[in-house]
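pinned: reference chain
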Amino acid sequence: MVDSEKLPHRTLPRLFFAALLTACLFAFSISHAAAQSGKIHYTKTTANKGGLTPLVAPTATGSRVYWFAMSTNGYGSPPISMISSSATGAQTDPAGSVYVMSDAQGNFHISASNNCPTSESFMYFLISGGEVGTAPNNPSIAMVAVIPTLCGGGHFFVDISETTTIAAAYALGSFATLSTDSFATNSDSTSALQSAVGYSSTLIDTANAVIPNGSAWQTTLNTLGDMIEACVNSASECPTLFAAATPPGGTAPTDTFQAALNIALNPNMNLTTLFNAIPSSPDFGPILSTVPASWTLPGSSVQITGVTPNPAPAGTPVTIVGSGFGAAQGNGVVIIGGIQASASSWSDTAIVVTVPAGAASNGVTQVFQNGFPSNPFPYSIGPLIGPTIIGLSLPQGPVGMGFVITGSNFGPASTVSMGDPLQGLLMVLSWSPTAITVQIPQTIVSGGNVVVTDGGLPSNGVNFTLTAPFGCSTP
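pinned: its structure tokens
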């Protein structure tokens, strides 16, 4: 688990970390890993922004270098250190994770590694702390790069930068624990984890930190990378970023990776404030020229618009509505609170799944289909809460009249009644989690309390007065 002090994060702007590593051994085999070395560079992008090229610049020194395998021991479980405690210069942080330090030239050396948990394990690097050029140590820096090669694979080469960090946050946010800067799930959810790692590789090539040129997400991902760059460059800029990256009612991040995760999981928050955090001379480009409608990465047709009931306890069927899910499940997977959920029905616009045991109490729901994820949709595990009506667009009207009910926790299978809950059903014309448009059918003979019922749970009632038809008078 990563140090609660947020690992003196060392990752310079465009923190370039070139590590050529030998293959991991399978679980339970005897480890005789060869020495592994690398170097951290302070780098700038090329003029045409086509990639990241190391220039003559100060190296990243005094950085903690962590190498982790993602745990499948349950959501929130600590990562697995791949650096052996017997490695030359290895140190252990208060959380029990092993790291090595980069030297005055930015070099690091890992002389011994641990066995892979399994040959199917996924890995990532976390760099924290250190000095950028002549700047003092900045403990608020945290950079991550997900390794697309399975633990039992061959050699790999990884660059770490702000953009690899953003890609990791957006791709694996459903599995991330903000307090430990780590990823984990349970053993039944490895296919979903594989989809997330694959998406990370789609967003950016971690072998050279290059985003596919002309991709739908290139401009937004670069913009987000520049957004956390100011904090990377100077610790004095971090409070501004962290305040803007704090979700309503949430906890403020304490490092740049946590800030990236908060933005990925809450893409509609503080749009203007976050946009204004971009440096006047950003290193990554092209970037957005105006404040976006949200920080959702474009390029995926998979979108969630609602999940009901929300919250719900483990074992409860919930309905996910949206678009782009696919006519059939195929290779689609659903994640709730970091755990894969079992689907009982699947269509392009609605999926019914069961809330899995072990899911994070306050996490997100995400659908992966054909290698792309949906937007992360906030979801809570807890007692069922019925719908609530805030108000009606009209207090009265005749048969045939339509009006809008506003409130919260409206499920896609909600029924709306007026007066008698069985005989007074209204016609539902359109639905969203916070608004239902209804019409009064000819069968309604009297007004009364309008009540929304979802999953057997009724809302509060709001009175509606039924009047005579327009143009008619009552004797």
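why pinned: The longest helix spans residues 218-233. Residues 1-58 have pLDDT under 50 and may be disordered.
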